[in-house]
Amino acid sequence: MAQDPPNPDQADMKSLSHDPLDHSELLRRHCPVIKFDARELFFPTEVDGFVKSSALMRGDQVVLAEGELSLERLGDGLSDHFLRFVSDEERKSVVGEEAKRLARKILSPRLGRVGLFGRVFDAVYSLIHIVRPTVPNRTVSAAALKADRLGLHKDRPVTYARAINTGGWLVLHYAYFYLFNDWRTSYRGLNDHEGDWEQIWIYCDPSDHSPQWIAASSHDNWGANLRRHWNDPEVVISDGRPVLHAGAGSHALYFRPGDYVTRLDVPGLRWLLRAQRWTQGALRIKDQAAERGMGPAFGAPFVDTATADGVDARVWDIRELDDQLDWIGRFRGLWGLDTHDPGEGERGPGGPKFTRTGQIRVSWADPVGFAGLHRTPPPSTMRRRFSDAKLDAVLDDVEHEIRRTARKLPFAAQTEAAADMEVDSKRLTELMRQRTELTDLRGRLSNPPADLDYRAHLKNAAVPLPPPAETGYILTFWSVVSVPLVLLSLAAVLVFDSITVAGFTAVVAAGTLLAEQLVRRRFQAVIRMSVVFALTAAFFAFAIGGLFTVFRFGIGAVITLAAGVLFVSNLGELGAATRHRRRSRLANEADADELS
After folding, report:
1. Closest Cα to residue 347, out of 334, 338, 356, 335?
2. I need a surface site. Which of 114, 314, 429, 574 has the fewest CB within 10 A?
3. Residue 490 and residue 556: Cα distance in Å, rounded?
4. What is the spatial distance between Cα 332 and Cα 457, in angstroms, rounded to a whole number?
């Protein structure tokens, strides 16, 4: 994408709002700044070129060939259709040198930044990927070459925007379309898919149009964790515009630059996570850096890199986002190749209004509820609900009741029973507490405190990983070989039948967990775990018999093949560790030069 024009404060507006109030200036004033990774291949662009360069498909049938489709022809009755941007011929025409040139380098190792459970999931995912329907190889290269050939990335990145009054808020809604999500292929992420929609919402007080909250899409997450207050220290504001950081390939949006680990919340496995956390607590083992703040979720080694060291998109071509347009309001198909992936991660996305299943998105119909804001009214609404006049009236009533009760109490000892006196005394105490609460409320409404907790709504919010200081060569090598080694050991037992599988599995599991702590230099944890394993082994020494006697050779061969595939797949970690060390050394040398 071409560099930004000289003036960073200008944004082109095209027919933005049908609202009787003209919100185009407000949309321009707060249009977010997005910072990208230096390796990024795809940037926000217009949908026109993508649609014209795609074929409209239904199953394997071409309904409209490339060049015959336009935005005007996307409408009702197409919920089972999808757009295919890269044809089989275009994909097969990519030569090896072009694919190699477009391949992205992984700049830091990932497997060592999560625990053993995360690496086991990565192994299962890698093996399932072999039979899972996914975006074909070299599709990313073909898409990047096609985008360059057709000039689909414009001088100014494009955002589609609208302003709506809903749920008591004035919502500024920005949508961004990318030609491709290449997170898996280019950055060892979780998935690839043609087409990609990301969104940002800014929630303004309708009385004075002042921005109060901002929410940004991040994969399929939703709720209060996605939003931050405008005055949150985590939110960077540049000339009235929030600054966000896009994950490389995934385009998920984050408020701070850095690496973010993928969270896996599998309800059926929460018991295992609780057992892991309990064991770590009992043995006083520190959590992995990648797993802190994860809540009920495992840390998986799919790292979203939002380093913000590339294009700084400040100048935007702002287009209309209106469901009166057929391609927004009526097209329920997919904006990319439909691979029929049962997990849906490799299928093209739905549009800004519809999900992959053709249902209206909650984020479109109810952006306030999508960000968990229904219980948080704008400041002006709060002021209307609790005006000074109303509060003064209530305070006067409470003061009157306090004076009446206080005057009564000195005479109550002579005229009332002890039980009645105790009731009056407690009532006086409660009235005085209410007066203090109301006085504090009036003060908060008229002069909001500077240290207001803007993060009270956050539960397990995403935080960037600390720099991978733990990720030396020893840990990287262990993260590469640990799971394949366990599989190879199990295959050897099955094939050679030297000891019982159950007994060997226990030994390997114990050895792997001990090695995991040893390479992380957690020596006290090793000692404590060794004692626990020794006692457990002594108790169960004769309780478990051998298994797998009939098909052990076939099973052993399959496990050996799986171990080989995983080992080859993980070898890229060693190169990533070398590149990370080189970058760290160069950064330290640059800092030293500046100080000198």
Report:
1. 338
2. 429
3. 8
4. 34
Q: CB of 171 within 8 A of CB of 206? A: no
Q: DSSP string spanning 156-208?
A: S-EEEEEEEEETTEEEEEEEEEEEEE-HHHHHS-S--EEEEEEEEEEEE-TTT
The reported pLDDT for the residue numbered 301 is 66
Whole-number Å distance between alpha carbons of 51 and 73: 10
Which pair of structure tokens corresponds to residue 131?
């039979």
Q: Would you state the structure tokens that stand for residue 29, as one six-digit string? A: 């004033």
Looking from the CA of 431 toward its CB, the CA atoms found within 13 Å total: 19
CA dihedral 174, 366, 180, 325 (to 10 degrees): -70
In one-letter notation, the amino acid at residue 572 is: G
Q: Which of 590, 37, 508 is nearest to 303 (CA)?
A: 37
Domain ranges of the chain: 12-370, 386-446, 473-595
Write the CB contacts of 367 (distance below 8 Å, at least 6 apart in sequence).
164, 166, 167, 171, 173, 201, 203, 215
Q: Are 81 and 58 in contact (CB under 8 A)?
A: yes
7 CB burial (10 A radius; 0-12, 13-18, 19+): exposed
Residue with tokens 């496995």: 269
User: Is the separation of the CB atoms in 126 and 566 below 8 Å?
Assistant: yes
Please state, in angstroms and rounded to a whole number, the distance separating the CA atoms of residues 573 and 105.
11
C-alpha to C-alpha distance for 595 and 298, rounded to whole angstroms: 41
Torsion 532-534-537-538 (CA) sign: negative
Nearest-5° Cα angle at 299, 294 to 305: 100
The angle that helices 552-570 and 473-496 make with each other, rounded to 10 degrees, is 170
The whole-angstrom separation of Cα 111 and Cα 114 is 6
Locate 592 and state its tokens.
């030293």
Strand intervals (E) in 312-431: 312-313, 317-320
Please state, as a whole number, how many other Cβ atoms lie within 10 Å of the Cβ of residue 411: 9
Cβ-based neighbour number of residue 348 at 10 Å: 25
Residue 243 DSSP class: E
Tell me which residue has tokens 């321009």. 28
Residue 280 near residue 218 (C-beta atoms within 8 A): no
pLDDT along the chain (596 residues), means of 10: 41 43 86 95 96 95 93 84 95 81 68 67 76 89 94 94 94 98 89 96 94 92 89 93 95 92 64 62 51 50 84 94 92 95 91 94 95 88 64 76 73 58 74 77 61 75 67 63 71 61 55 51 50 50 43 64 69 63 60 56
Which two tokens mark 401? 């009741």
Q: Give residue 586's pLDDT.
A: 60
Across 419-528, the runs of DSSP E, i.e. the strands, are none
Rounded to an integer, what distance in angstroms lies between the CA atom of residue 517 and that of residue 498? 28
Q: Which two tokens stand for residue 310?
A: 């590339």
Given a contact cutoff of 8 angstroms between Cβ atoms, the answer to whether 31 and 318 are in contact is: yes
Which DSSP category does 256 fall into? Answer: S
What pLDDT, on a 0 to 100 scale, did the predictor assign at position 474? Answer: 65
Cα 225 to chain centroid distance, Å, stands at 10
Q: Token digits for 173?
A: 């809604």
**Beta-bridge mates of residue 313:** 34
Q: Which of 381, 378, 375, 352 is nearest to 365 (CA)?
A: 352
The pLDDT value recorded for residue 12 is 46
β pairing state of 169-181 and 158-166: antiparallel
